[in-house]
From TrEMBL:
Gene: VPS16
Subunit and interaction comment: Core component of at least two putative endosomal tethering complexes, the homotypic fusion and vacuole protein sorting (HOPS) complex and the class C core vacuole/endosome tethering (CORVET) complex. Their common core is composed of the class C Vps proteins VPS11, VPS16, VPS18 and VPS33A, which in HOPS further associates with VPS39 and VPS41 and in CORVET with VPS8 and TGFBRAP1. Interacts with RAB5C. Interacts with STX17, MON1B. Associates with adapter protein complex 3 (AP-3) and clathrin:AP-3 complexes.
Keyword tags: Coiled coil, Endosome, Lysosome, Membrane, Protein transport, Transport
Vps16 C-terminal domain ranges (all copies): 493-811
Protein name from the UniProt record: Vacuolar protein sorting-associated protein 16 homolog
Species of origin: Canis lupus familiaris
Membrane topology: Peripheral membrane protein
InterPro entries referenced in this protein's UniProt entry, alphabetically: VPS16 (IPR016534), Vps16_C (IPR006925), Vps16_C_sf (IPR038132), Vps16_N (IPR006926)
Residues of the Vps16 N-terminal domain: 1-396
Family, per entry: Belongs to the VPS16 family.
Coiled-coil stretches: 325-352
Subcellular location: Late endosome membrane; Lysosome membrane
UniProt function note: Plays a role in vesicle-mediated protein trafficking to lysosomal compartments including the endocytic membrane transport and autophagic pathways. Believed to act as a core component of the putative HOPS and CORVET endosomal tethering complexes.
An example Gene Ontology biological process: vacuole fusion, non-autophagic
Domain of life: Eukaryota
Length: 815
């Protein structure tokens, strides 16, 4: 260990994170025998003792320290406030465990880990428990009261059963289990008699097993469900241990508990004998997935069960295939013929594949590189004599060991075992290297393992950039340039995320410079709005061409700026102004009118008043007034046509209102043509003609309107009089067509005879007189008319007519 501790570990609050994590020491905690004027110091070290952070503690008395699964340090104060610090001593956040804890103070605390995250359990001065299963999503649970509890329990711990956190506590010889609903007394199966108190509890790393130390010197070991006893051991020591933790490997049948006193360490299990070690100095135990870390002022060691593969290979006089293969490889290097003898022995037993696998597995559990190389050489030697041995496991083990050896280095200080590494996964390991700001090593590992860029190098570079923006002693230009040179167009890196971190650090100008490198406008604009740079956000949104993005900025600007400044901003951005007008047309008509007024856009203002006259006004007077305003606007815009048309509409509205008053019926909002048609249908032809004269309706259009109306009325007599009133300006073919449309062939024939020569054939065909149409076509000698008549000839009835037309065509061709 590289640290230089001036005090013993027993005089400090100590917390060590699992999986080779950091160690936190709070020196000089609040003790009655210590001078209160000396402020304690919180120090954080790597597992090798390299200092990571040191800060003077200026807050309240601390009761307990612990590490979360994310390697954040939780400092539980006496008043129930929990302060959270990062690995480098940076303050992250704080939260409170509730008013009851504040009033009654904290006596003890436990940080535990579940599948939901890191939890915290508190024992208050009122001897009540408060628990949160996940401090990241704080939800406090007040546990039930223990009946008759007048003093603090002699020991307690947290258990996780069926995804629910429970509390197990000992009061004298009795055990109680607290869940969210009730307090129940429990009895340990097979416990030796005579126990009057439990002095220590320990739950295994996986929360599956439980150990209790009694005042009789017995250690009871069983399942955490308290339903099955594994074994019981008498250590013949009644003094309460300083620490007691489990020591077992995953999927191993061996169960062991490590108990520590001041200068003695004892390993006990289901064997009749224990293993004892003498501790030269004050030590601290850290339970791990596959063993126990033991560190003191000068050393950091790992106590674990010897893996099966290692035991098979290295035990004295072992004849296991892995042991023989290792000896064969060593003899081969010596160029000894014994190598062939060992190899033949393994092959005769058919165990060469097993031998290679044993050597590979044993190499994974070795911490010394020379032993790893020796075992891997043996595995490689054995593979040469196998035809179909898959190389994946060998290659993967070589890669894993290279990564493990790199992070176990003294200067890195993450002493992971192979089992811990596999449980932790490479992604979490990379996160922990990033957390320690070991970016070059993390990138080298990603490149060595050939991880996808988005999961590996890109992600690490993004973290590096986020750390870079926090270096306030470097100018904004230099930081932005360095980040861009390093990141470039690396896939998976978001400059907007880095800029957001810069803004969170109070470096707004740096954030803006970084956003210039962000190619996605959709990522630039929200952050610019958050930074109160709305005008710049509007420019970026317009450059992107994304109308939804522009609308988002416009609505933000509208709420942020006063009306005048908002309109002035829009005038400088024509595209934004156009889009905002479109928005106002559907949502805010009054704002649209203000925009037209401000721009002196009389043409659009006139159109606006016309739409408003029909959309909002129901009274004729109000509508006419709105139309008059529109006409005035059109005159200002020098659009005389629109102004005259608007005035004509005003005249028509007044006239329609008068017609309704005098004749009844519905006239208002009809078009001019519909008004004339309605008058004709109502028998008011004189009024219709007067209306046509007033509004200068052309004669052709008036004749069409009257013809259609009289035909709809089926007033054939009036229609005939109308046709003879004067020469028809539209001809008489429309009369024929309208009559046939009403299925009146008799009336149609009257007008067919009056149709001019150029339309005679078509009229005769409409009334069904094919023979006469043929005669007229032959007389006109018009090929188009002949073809038209011929197309109307059907069957035997028109056969003679068709022949007649064919003869006429033949004679015309001869000539």
């Amino acid at each position: 260990m590289d640290w230089d501790l001036k005090e013993e570990l027993r005089d400090c609050l100590v917390a060590a994170a699992p999986y080779g994590g950091p160690i936190a020491l709070l020196r000089n905690p609040w003790r009655k025998e210590k001078a209160t004027s000396i402020r304690p110091v919180l120090e954080i070290y790597s597992a090798s003792g390299l200092p990571l952070a040191s800060l003077l503690w200026k807050s309240g008395p601390v009761v307990s320290l612990g590490w979360s699964a994310e390697e954040e340090l939780l400092c539980v104060q006496e008043d129930g406030v929990v302060l959270v610090y990062g690995l480098h001593g940076d303050f992250r956040r704080h939260f409170s465990m509730g008013n009851e804890v504040l009033q009654n103070r904290v006596l003890d605390a436990r940080i535990f880990h579940t599948e939901f995250g890191s939890g915290l359990a508190i024992l208050t001065g009122a001897h009540r428990f408060t628990l949160s299963a996940n401090v990241g999503d704080l939800k406090l649970r007040r546990m039930p009261e223990v009946p008759g509890l007048q003093s603090a329990p002699s020991c307690w711990t947290t258990l996780c059963q069926d995804r629910v956190a429970h509390i197990l506590l000992a009061v004298g010889p009795d055990l109680y289990l607290l869940d969210h609903a009730a307090c129940s007394a429990v009895t340990l199966p097979g416990l030796a008699p005579g126990v009057s108190s439990f002095l220590q509890m320990a739950v295994s790393f996986t929360y599956r097993h439980l150990a209790l130390f009694t005042d009789t010197g017995y250690i009871w070991m069983g399942t955490s469900s308290l339903k099955e006893k594994l074994c019981e051991f008498n250590c013949n020591i009644r003094a309460p241990p300083k620490q007691m933790v489990w020591c077992s490997r995953p999927r191993s049948k061996e169960r062991a508990v490590v108990v520590a006193w001041e200068r003695r360490l004892m390993v006990v299990g289901d064997a009749p004998e224990s293993i004892q070690f003498v501790l030269d100095e004050d030590s601290y135990l850290v339970p791990e997935l596959d063993g126990v870390r033991i560190f003191s002022r000068s050393t950091h060691e790992f106590l674990h069960e010897v893996p099966v593969a290692s035991e098979e290979i290295f035990k004295i006089a072992s004849m296991a295939p892995g042991a023989l293969l290792l000896e064969a490889q060593k003899e081969y290097e010596k160029e000894s013929q014994k190598a062939d003898e060992y190899l033949r022995e393994i092959q005769e037993l058919g165990q060469l594949t097993q031998a290679v696998q044993q050597c590979i597995e044993a190499a994974g559990h070795e911490h010394r590189p020379d032993m790893q190389k020796s075992l891997l050489r043996a595995a490689s030697f054995g593979k040469c004599f196998l035809d179909k041995f898959p190389p994946d496991s060998f290659v993967r083990m070589c890669q894993d060991l290279r990564v493990l050896n790199a992070i176990r280095d003294y200067h890195i200080g993450i002493p992971l075992t192979y089992s811990q590494y596999k449980q932790l996964t490479i992604q979490v390991l990379l996160d922990r290297l990033v957390l320690r700001r070991l970016y070059p090593l993390a990138i080298q590992i990603c490149e060595y393992l050939r991880l996808p860029e988005v999961q590996g190098v890109s992600r690490i570079l993004a973290h590096w950039a986020c750390y870079k923006v926090q270096q306030k002693d470097v100018s904004d230009e230099d930081v932005a340039r360095a980040i861009n040179q390093k990141l470039g167009d690396t896939p998976g890196v978001s400059y907007s995320d880095i800029a957001a971190r810069a803004y969170g650090c109070g470096r707004t100008e740096l954030a803006i410079k970084l956003l210039e490198y962000e190619p996605r406008s959709g990522e630039q604009v929200p952050l610019l709005l958050k930074m109160k740079r709305s005008k710049l956000a509007l420019s970026k949104a317009i450059e992107s061409g994304d109308t939804d993005l522009v609308f988002t900025v416009l609505l933000h600007l509208k709420n942020e700026l006063n009306r005048g400044d908002f309109f002035m901003t829009l005038r400088n951005q024509p595209m934004a102004l156009s889009l905002y007008r479109q928005f106002c047309k559907h949502q805010e008509l009054e704002t649209l009118k203000d925009l037209y007024n401000q721009d002196d856009n009389h043409q659009e203002l006139g159109s606006f008043h016309i739409r408003a006259s029909y959309a909002a006004e129901e009274r004729i007077e109000g509508r006419v007034a709105a139309l008059q305003t529109a006409a005035d606007a059109f005159y200002k815009a020098k659009n005389e046509f629109a102004a005259k048309a608007t005035e004509d509409q005003m005249r028509l509205l007044r006239l329609q209102r008068r017609l309704e008053d005098e004749l009844g019926g519905h006239f208002v909002d009809l078009s001019l043509h519909d008004t004339v048609t309605t008058l004709i249908l109502g028998g008011h032809s004189k009024r219709a003609e007067q209306l046509a004269r007033d509004f200068r309706i052309p004669d052709k259009r008036l004749w069409w309107l009257k013809l259609t109306a009289l035909a709809d009325l089926e007033d054939w007599e009036e229609l005939e009089k109308f046709s003879k009133s004067k020469k028809s300006p539209i001809g008489y073919l429309p009369f024929v067509e309208i009559c046939m449309k009403q299925h009146n062939k008799y009336e149609a024939k009257k007008y067919a005879s009056r149709v001019g020569p150029e339309q005679k054939v078509k009229a005769l065909l409409l009334v069904g007189d094919v023979a006469q149409a043929a005669d007229v076509a032959i007389e006109h000698r018009n090929e188009a008319e002949l073809s038209l008549v011929l197309s109307h000839c059907t069957g035997a009835t028109d056969g003679a007519t068709a022949d007649k037309i064919q003869r006429a065509r033949a004679q015309a061709q001869k000539k």
